[in-house]
Amino acid sequence: MYAPLLSNRYLTSRIIPFLAVAAVALCVALVIVVVSVMSGFLEEVRRSGKTLIGDVVVTRDIIGIPHYEELIREIEALPTAEAACAVVETYGLLQMPYGQGDGGKQIETVQVWGIEPASFDRVTDYRSKLYWRTPTKEEAAALAPDDPRLDAEYQREREGMSLHNAAGEPGLVLGIEISPFNRRTKDGSYRTENQSGAQDPGYFMPNIEPAPLLTLVPVTESGKIVGEKKMRFPVVNEFQSGVFQIDSQRVLAPIAEIQRMLALDAADVVSRTERDENGQPKIEGRTPARATTILVKAKPGVDPMQLRTDVEVAYARFFEKIMKDPARSRFGKPPLSVLVATWEQRLSALLGPVEKERALMRTLFSIVYVVCAALVLAIFWSIVQEKTRDIGILRAIGASRTGVLWIFLRYGMLIGVVGSLLGVLLAWAIVARLNDIHDLLGTPSPTWLRVLAWLAVLVGLGMIVHSVRRASALRTVLWGFGTVGLVSLALVLWNHEGHVIWDPSVYYFSRIPSEIDTDIAWTTAVFGTLFSVIGAAIPAGRAADTDPVKSLRYE
Amino acid sequence: MAQRKDDTALLSARNVRKTYHLGKVRVPVLRDASIDIAAGEWVSIVGSSGSGKSTLLHLLGGLDRPDADSGPISFAGDDLRAFGPRRENEYRNRDVGFVFQFYHLLPELTVLENAMLPSLVGLGRLRWLFSRGELRERAAELLKTCGLGHRLLHRPAELSGGERQRVAIARALINKPRVLLADEPTGNLDEKTGGGILDLLASCHSDGLTLVMVTHDASIARRAQRQVRIADGCIALAHE
Fold this sequence. Notes:
Radius of gyration of chain A: 34 Å
Number of strands of chain A: 16
Helix content of chain A: 40-55%
Distance between the termini of chain A: 28 Å
Oligomer: heterodimer
Strand order of the largest sheet of chain B: 6-7-8-3-9-10
Radius of gyration of chain B: 18 Å
Strand content of chain B: 25-35%
Number of strands of chain B: 10
Largest interface: A-B, 25 and 30 residues
Order of helices and strands of chain B: EEEHEEHEHHHEHEHEE
Strand content of chain A: 15-25%
Structural class of chain A: alpha+beta
Helix content of chain B: 25-40%
Distance between the termini of chain B: 17 Å
Structural class of chain B: alpha/beta
């Protein structure tokens, strides 16, 4: 019964335990803040990455899957699938309507996705990713007054959703980062500017003439290149997926146009030897249109892995159905197997490095636990040293070795528990206000704060003089160090013109992820406590083994 | 060298040896020291500094163990050398009470808590819950007897030397031990305060407590019923 009394009393009546508690709290807070931000970052990448890809992706190379409409019907009949859409994926060259020097045009290598906007929207929530659209009331309230999206001239969702311009011409929707004239601001929104850097009218891509020139290279089933196909597409809108690699490379175009350019559209098959009654080569049949990719959206609550399995079964059924029908299989045999992957598997190249970075950070910051244990050990060593005589007294009045051990282990646990809980609270306070703290660091210090800091310096100097006059060495030293600190702070505030750490033009997300990872928080708190107990265990064991006579004689 | 053979002794040491090892150097402190203390007796152990009197007191109180070739130390007929850790802790907690020259109070606890500490050590959580009121009352009563009724919630740092020693005596008596072992109980106090402490010890003795007191002051030793002189690690002389 004496162990709790003494542990609690040791904890509350001395300064050293508070230093230990502060050390544990800072270690725990550090780990939680870093890992929470990294987890939040990964979650943002995952959330954004998923939006334009659906839950499961069926792919084949550039040859494509024939009769894909049949496959989509087969997939949409699945109880686990909500919707599916076809995409033609390829790479191309996009000659932009601007460039450097004497009339030269800039050419971008782009990933072209031929889509049918309505079905693509059902699977990927495409509409919400269009950048130039009419904001909702809530969105409009959050936009800066000079945000161009508030201007009706910039609201082009009809064009974006039809992939055609007002004149009815098929157009492109570019990733928002493709044009270098879309300048990202601190709040994460975009302003269009021209080459001289001036805004409004700027280079608002849907208004720029001439239309960009898209060059694609069709490939035959045997892998031969069949010349190049060029076509001008006006830019009808731009999209923002949230993933830089997608927004800086991907271009969306009407699927029919891309199929035509890549010779993946439906076409007549003519005989090389036979002629019809008009003397033209005889039409033997028609090859079906092809799509390289099918995107599938899962029904709410369905695990993508389950859907993937179902889609594989649906594809096998589709294959069998087509192959049993000679009329359809003659000119368009689907491949025996296709690649079916969940969105996570498909984006593994993108998510993998971030996940590895998070694991690396977690591992590196685990060292902080060891630091925490070492701090507690050092502090406890000094506490046990100081308490040697108390240990002798306790042993003299009948306390057992385990009793003495338990006092210090319990003491360590109390420090760990209190420190870890404070660490969690501190981390929560920091993470919840991370963007505010960042904004504060990013703005120049106000004049009143600078003046206040210099006034504090003057007070510090006055206290040094006062301490010298009172011949107090301790006060003089303390005020001396304090004043040096205040001078440093005043100088920093004086020269602080705003320091942006999380620059949205470098990091893709406009705001730092600011949600605490509760699993990490509690795990860290448990480990903080555990390592505090481990740190206390060695001095506690030493205390328990102390010879009572030696302890009582200890000076 | 035995001083008195008494089969009814409450506390007895026979040919006790104790050697300290300072690195490779052996320092024999007690060499065949023997003593018998009867129940209710007040014995003073006197001797010069370093003569081994405190060592003998520590051995009698079970705080230290004699050499392997030492003779027995027994309490009420039980050999302390045969005590396991649990019985040894019980012995220190219930059978004997210690009073030290430098008081040895725990600075974080109040006067009342210091006095109650041996009860807290001796009781489990459950027994403490049921008897804490009674124990608190007993500790307060003891402290009142020692003249500290108005100091119960003070910390040791707020007390004078004499007051601290009174708290230490109350602590030693809280578990009603049969023997009180006092190591220079007045060694750190002025004559008047020391006299008050001796009066308190005498009063405890008159209540039937066996008292073993180590001192180097012959005038203080004379207050005991019997004096035992220790020199060169042996019991040299006894005065009735």
